[in-house]
Each structure stands twice: as C-alpha cells, then as structure tokens.
Amino acid sequence: MRLEGKVVIITGAASGIGRASARKFCEEGAIVIACDLNEELLNSLAEETKDLPGEVIPKRLSVTDREAIKALVAEIKDKYGRIDGLVNNAGITRDALIQKMSEEDWDAVINVNLKGVFNMTQFVVPVMIGQGYGSIVNTSSVVGVYGNIGQTNYAATKGGVIAMTKTWAKEFTRRGAKIRVNAVAPGFIKTPMTEKVPEKVIKMMEEKIPLKRMGEAEEIANVYLFLISDESSYITGQVIGVDGGLVL
Ligand code: NAD
C-alpha cells in the first residue's frame, strides 16, 4: 500500500475531489482525518470506507476556525504523535463580475480558499518541523494561473495558493527539515462545485479541452496521492496541472 499507516488531514473531504481522495487514501492504508463542514456527508464517507484497509476519521471543522484547528492538531498529535500529510482542498466559489461582486462574497472566498490554507498550514507545520518531514498539497486551479471572467475573488485565492506553495517549499526546508509543498491546479472537474454549470457551457468547455471531456474527481485524487506519498520524494514547490490539456 502506498500510504500505509500515514496520518493525513484532508480538508473539504465530504464532497467531490476531497471525498474521492479520502476514499483513495484509505484504500492505500492511510489514517485520514477527514475535515469538512458537512457532518452528514462525512459520516456517510466513514460508513462507506469502513471495510477498507485504512481509516477515515470524520471531523466537523471549518478551515476558518483557528481555535478549532488548533484543538484538532493537538488532538492528532496526542493520539498519533505525528502528521505525515496535509491536503488543503476545501474551497468555495461566489462568482460575479467585479462591478457586482459584494464585499461579503469577496471576503467569504478569501477566508475559506486563501486564509483557510494559511490557517491549516500554520497549525500543522510546527508538528511536521518537529518530526523533520511531511508533505503538503494545496489545491489551486487553472483559474489561479490564467484568470476567469466572473471569478475575481476565486482567481485571487487560487493564485495566492500558488505563491504560498512556492514560499513554503523554501521556508519549510530550512535547517534540514524535509517538508515538501506542492500545488495541484485542476481544470474542469465533475463535482458538486460544477454541477450547476449549464449543459451548453459544458459542451463548449469540452470542445476546448484537448482530451475532450471534463475530469473526474478521482483523477485529481490520484495526483494528491502521488504528492502525499513517498513516490514524489524529490518534488517540491511545483504546480501540477490536471486539466486534460486545457491550458496548453
Ligand atoms: P465541492 O464543492 O464538491 O467540495 C468542496 C468541499 O469543501 C465541500 O464538502 C464543502 O463543504 C467543503 N468546505 C467548504 N467550506 C469549508 C470550510 N470553511 N471548512 C471546511 N470545509 C469546507 O468542490 P470540489 O470541486 O471537490 O472542490 C475541491 C477543491 O478543488 C476546491 O478547492 C476547488 O476550488 C478546487 N477546484 C475544483 C475544480 C472543479 O472543476 N470542480 C476546478 C479547480 C479547482
């Protein structure tokens, strides 16, 4: 198994890409601390994965709640003595052209997609530094590199995630620590986040994508798995596009 016994936190684990990842990590023997706001979906995930080799531990947690994150990290450290991996996957959209974007929608997206990644990492990384190793995966987007009409807030966060990834890849390897930090930039993926996209837009997008289809959540989970596992031991500070060639 590729993650046997590894303790890994995944945020946004109840749905879409996070859920596919929690399941996959569990198949590969990991102890997955599955964090999300949606307790019901987290519980169904734990139920669905109970016969797999690893374990899914559901935790209701907002990545915006610094006190709760601090308490969770202390609890994991007490119980397992280490945190091998962190996948900062939770994300939301609140789309509008800038003229119509409310300050509330700007703040909401920044708080979850950007500050949430900062919050989780700030509390988890001291544990990784203490143990001398770890792997962090941050979820960006093709939108963070190329922009997208109607997504000023979302694009700003996803671009920010790339900047934090590169900064941390340098910062977390000081004094011999072997903490790798990489980002994944998904393209257009079939999840609840994209389920309301009109059929016409989907057709248009699929025409533009060289592989001529939307991606599956599992295809992003495969890359998270590779980056959290030791198979990617010489990769850090990278942004891996998983987009069917969309941004070529
Ligand atoms: P999704 O909506 O299916 O899942 C996101 C999950 O994050 C949900 O379960 C939600 O409850 C959770 N979440 C939201 N706010 C949270 C908070 N404050 N604390 C903890 N959890 C919270 O979406 P998805 O498509 O699986 O998205 C996963 C990640 O991939 C996101 O960061 C998203 O921006 C990114 N992404 C998705 C696509 C796509 O096409 N679906 C493309 C590029 C990037």
UniProtKB/TrEMBL annotation:
<comment type="similarity">
    <text>Belongs to the short-chain dehydrogenases/reductases (SDR) family.</text>
</comment>
<dbReference type="GO" id="GO:0051287">
    <property type="term" value="F:NAD binding"/>
</dbReference>
<comment type="function">
    <text>Catalyzes the NADPH-dependent reduction of beta-ketoacyl-ACP substrates to beta-hydroxyacyl-ACP products, the first reductive step in the elongation cycle of fatty acid biosynthesis.</text>
</comment>
<dbReference type="GO" id="GO:0006633">
    <property type="term" value="P:fatty acid biosynthetic process"/>
</dbReference>
<comment type="pathway">
    <text>Lipid metabolism; fatty acid biosynthesis.</text>
</comment>
<feature type="binding site">
    <location>
        <begin position="154"/>
        <end position="158"/>
    </location>
    <ligand>
        <name>NADP(+)</name>
    </ligand>
</feature>
<dbReference type="InterPro" id="IPR036291">
    <property type="entry name" value="NAD(P)-bd_dom_sf"/>
</dbReference>
<feature type="binding site">
    <location>
        <position position="89"/>
    </location>
    <ligand>
        <name>NADP(+)</name>
    </ligand>
</feature>
<keyword id="KW-0444">Lipid biosynthesis</keyword>
<dbReference type="GO" id="GO:0048038">
    <property type="term" value="F:quinone binding"/>
</dbReference>
<keyword id="KW-0560">Oxidoreductase</keyword>
<keyword id="KW-0521">NADP</keyword>
<dbReference type="InterPro" id="IPR011284">
    <property type="entry name" value="3oxo_ACP_reduc"/>
</dbReference>
<feature type="active site" description="Proton acceptor">
    <location>
        <position position="154"/>
    </location>
</feature>
<dbReference type="InterPro" id="IPR020904">
    <property type="entry name" value="Sc_DH/Rdtase_CS"/>
</dbReference>
<protein>
    <recommendedName>
        <fullName>3-oxoacyl-[acyl-carrier-protein] reductase</fullName>
        <ecNumber>1.1.1.100</ecNumber>
    </recommendedName>
</protein>
<feature type="domain" description="Ketoreductase">
    <location>
        <begin position="6"/>
        <end position="192"/>
    </location>
</feature>
<comment type="subunit">
    <text>Homotetramer.</text>
</comment>
<dbReference type="GO" id="GO:0004316">
    <property type="term" value="F:3-oxoacyl-[acyl-carrier-protein] reductase (NADPH) activity"/>
</dbReference>
<keyword id="KW-0275">Fatty acid biosynthesis</keyword>
<dbReference type="Pfam" id="PF13561">
    <property type="entry name" value="adh_short_C2"/>
</dbReference>
<dbReference type="InterPro" id="IPR002347">
    <property type="entry name" value="SDR_fam"/>
</dbReference>
<feature type="binding site">
    <location>
        <position position="189"/>
    </location>
    <ligand>
        <name>NADP(+)</name>
    </ligand>
</feature>
<keyword id="KW-0443">Lipid metabolism</keyword>
<keyword id="KW-0276">Fatty acid metabolism</keyword>
<dbReference type="InterPro" id="IPR057326">
    <property type="entry name" value="KR_dom"/>
</dbReference>
